């Protein structure tokens, strides 16, 4: 068995991400990927068992990076406002700096790969965010509510702005590019909605 070439593996990962975003899961194939990377299909099998293994490994690796980015400078004992502000900053920055991965994660959320990928990375992230919410409720900074309601109020507005940004258009097809001022104006409204 030939040894792994890290540069080649990085190229494979980057091309796979690009192709998955542009062609979708149905249009993606190992043969197309090998051709795009100018390598043999056999070389891909040094790194991955099959197409599913390739998608899952890349997604888990990237989801781990995203999870670490979201927890950067974040601590569950922060106040609701400070912790949420850091979460927004981290999520906003990650999505702007990694537009292809942002789009790929959207595809993965509605795919059969979802459970395998997100279950692999949720541990520390889920624990930290859970503690943050419990602390905010215990301190009386926000009312107790189902997680889905919290997420819909706390993060959905940010992700909608980012979706419009990645698509390059807003409602009605108007050209759209997200601006910092817009993000933080939305954040202020979200914070008002969450606070008691």
Automatic annotation (TrEMBL):
Q: What is this protein called?
A: HTH tetR-type domain-containing protein
PROSITE patterns assigned: HTH_TETR_2 (PS50977)
DNA-binding region boundaries = 29-48
What the entry lists under InterPro entries is as follows:
Homeodomain-like_sf (IPR009057), HTH-type_Tx_Regulator (IPR050624), HTH_TetR (IPR001647), Tet_transcr_reg_TetR-rel_C_sf (IPR036271)
Alphabetized PANTHER family for the sequence: ACREF/ENVCD OPERON REPRESSOR-RELATED, ACREF_ENVCD OPERON REPRESSOR-RELATED
The record's section on SUPFAM superfamilies has:
Homeodomain-like (SSF46689), Tetracyclin repressor-like, C-terminal domain (SSF48498)
GO molecular-function annotation terms? DNA binding
Does the keyword section mention ATP-binding? no
What Pfam families does the annotation carry?
TetR_N
- Keyword DNA-binding attributed: yes
| UniProt domain HTH tetR-type: residue ranges | 6-66
UniProt keyword list: DNA-binding
């Amino acid at each position: 068995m030939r040894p792994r070439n890290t540069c080649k593996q990085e190229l494979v990962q980057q091309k796979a991400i690009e192709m998955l975003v542009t062609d979708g899961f149905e249009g993606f194939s190992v043969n197309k990927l090998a051709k795009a990377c100018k390598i043999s299909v056999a070389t891909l099998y040094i790194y991955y068992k099959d197409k599913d293994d390739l998608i899952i490994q890349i997604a888990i690796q990237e989801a781990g990076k995203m999870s670490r980015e979201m927890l950067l400078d974040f601590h569950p004992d922060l106040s609701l406002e400070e912790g949420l502000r850091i979460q927004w900053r981290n999520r906003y920055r990650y999505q702007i700096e990694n537009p292809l991965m942002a789009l790929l994660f959207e595809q993965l959320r509605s795919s059969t790969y979802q459970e395998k990928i997100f279950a692999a990375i949720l541990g520390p992230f889920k624990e930290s965010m859970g503690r943050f919410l419990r602390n905010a409720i215990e301190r009386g900074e926000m009312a107790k509510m189902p997680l889905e309601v919290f997420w819909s109020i706390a993060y959905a507005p940010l992700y909608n702005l980012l979706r419009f940004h990645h698509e390059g258009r807003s409602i009605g097809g108007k050209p759209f590019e997200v601006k910092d001022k817009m993000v933080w104006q939305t954040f202020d409204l979200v914070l008002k909605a969450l606070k008691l």
